[in-house]
Amino acid sequence: MGFTADEMEPDELNSYLASRSYVDGYSYSYSDFTLFQRISKSVPKYSEGSHVMRWFKHIKTLSSKESTVPQSSNKFTENKSSLIISADMSLDQAILNTLTERKEIDSLNFASENGLDHQKLVGAIKSLLALPSQYIKAEQKQVSVWTLTDEGKSFVENGSYEFILYSSVLKDGVLQKDLMKLPNAKIGFSKAMTLGWLMIDKKHENGPTVLRKVDNATDVVKAMLEDIRDKKDVPDKQIQDLKKRKLVTSVVTKFYSITKGSNFRTTIEKPEADLTADMLQDGSWKQKSFKEYNFAAKGAPITSGYLHPLLKVRTEFRRIFLDMGFSEMPTNKFVENGFWNFDALFQPQQHPARDAHDTFFISNPEMTKVENLPSDYLERVKTTHERGGYGSTGYNYDWKITEAQKNILRTHTTAVSARMLYALAQQKEFKPAKMFSIDRVFRNETLDATHLAEFHQIEGLVADRNLTLGHLIGTLYAFFKKLGLEKLKFKPAYNPYTEPSMEIFSYHPGLKKWVEIGNSGMFRPEMLLPMGIPKDVNVIAWGLSLERPTMIKYGINNIRELIGPKVNLNMIQENPICRLNKV
Fold first, then answer.
1. Which residue of 46, 201, 373, 549 has the smallest Cβ count within 10 Å?
2. ∠ CA 229-234-239 to the nearest 5 degrees?
3. Considering the entire predicted model, what is its pTM?
């Protein structure tokens, strides 16, 4: 039948059927049976339509002979020369049956002919394509159709703005100020003037008056929109004009062109998902097809916690140190006192790093008790600062115990190194040591894309007899080689507690330049000898941040996207495993 029954009223339907031949060679479809069921529920409503009732009796006779009236809107019926599709047939089976009579099926036309939902038909097509045997071939195509916008539909219903405005102008004219009060008057007036429908009498005694320039006008815009609605041909130039006025829009519809596949047949044999014991026993597995395993399919996501990128990179650095025979220092004291953080490192009390501009001071408890500091060692540190010793002249100032007692958030993990070296010096017999630490430190920094008030510091040190700067450079080459960095340069630098000191640079192939990657040096005698470290023992050390290599590894440009409230939780969940380019 090729129409939608629900769109027609009884009189309209009766006129439509009057022009149709539905007895000899009549091709009926799902739409016929949908209408048949509708009329069956309310025959009196349609009884006055002679053509409707004649058609109804014909379908009733036909359906009683062939038992093809469908019971569900998910099934459909079609009859060409013989019944190739039955009412209880699934959509995928119907497609196969139809291909026995047709070379090609257009999914849009097929759905329209049989009153089907096109999306459900697409689902059936994809179901057939998913079968191992190539039952069908389907090529996706698309067609662009012009449709009316909401404003265009209102033009069809009420007329264009210019025609409405023209119709509002009486023979004697209308004052322009009154006419412009109408809805959309500005647009309508401009278009009507352009078309030559209206004119303005500016010298009218009542003021500027709009008059009709032509006796009759035709609403061409409405007529064109009606043609587009009815799928009639409209010149492209006119369509473009309507598009500029946003009265029409192009809608792209995708559909499938379906043909027979290399293994086309009308009997659908769904592949087995499992090989069972019964199949093996009776040998039926030989005649069956099996569903292929999809080894590329992703497994179900496991609900679990996720490691932060910093922790992943930290683990890699920790493994490198352990592989090199280092032992890890305890770094669980975030709150430190000024003595271990500064004074023990031979850093003067007037140094700018000890100001509130650079260091976070604790208000409660504000001070460390003097008895918690090693008294003999404290006196040696005081003397070294004030008057020197061990080959040094000192800083020549009055060292104050109150400055050493102040509690702070540690500014570097070197405070931990100082505690561990002091403990090493208290042993009866000195034993060489290799130690490292990776933990958080705090500085009163100005926040920007590369600096935060807290960050992680990586530090390594080696204590042994007669170590030299050459040992330090060799150790740095061995350490950074395990990170995949083999091109290194060293630049002299100054640190209060190391001498000599060196900045470490590595060549970055991506940036094509040398970039600073860390700092290093040999701890000064003024720091080591007051602890009780033997004179022939030297300590080499180096440090770098954890955040910079992590940002480079994971392509993060702003440190605030790595740590803090702006972190994207999806980044935490989805970031890949850390594999440094170790050699």
1. 201
2. 85
3. 0.50
